[in-house]
Design brief:
By secondary structure, the chain is mostly helical. It contains 3 helices and no strands. The longest helix has 14 residues.
Length: 68
């Protein structure tokens, strides 16, 4: 058995994002779409532009502030 947590198989449940697809961490470079989705807004040209401005001004902390 491997110590790698991603090698552990778990049943896929419809409608739930599997752990292997989730990511977080200081080294990630969040996209404008990540910020829009974290804020609970719909992805539109306007919200993407808002997110691009926030990321340019605040960097990763713009996303961190949206997450609990």
């Amino acid at each position: 058995m491997s110590e790698d947590p991603e090698s552990v198989s778990a049943p896929e449940v419809s409608g739930i994002t599997p752990d292997r697809l989730l990511h977080t961490g200081g080294s990630d470079r969040p996209s404008a779409e990540d910020l829009v989705l974290a804020s609970g807004r719909d992805v539109t040209p306007e919200t993407l532009e808002w997110a691009r401005r926030k990321l340019a001004d605040e960097g990763r902390s713009a996303l961190d502030r949206q997450l609990p």
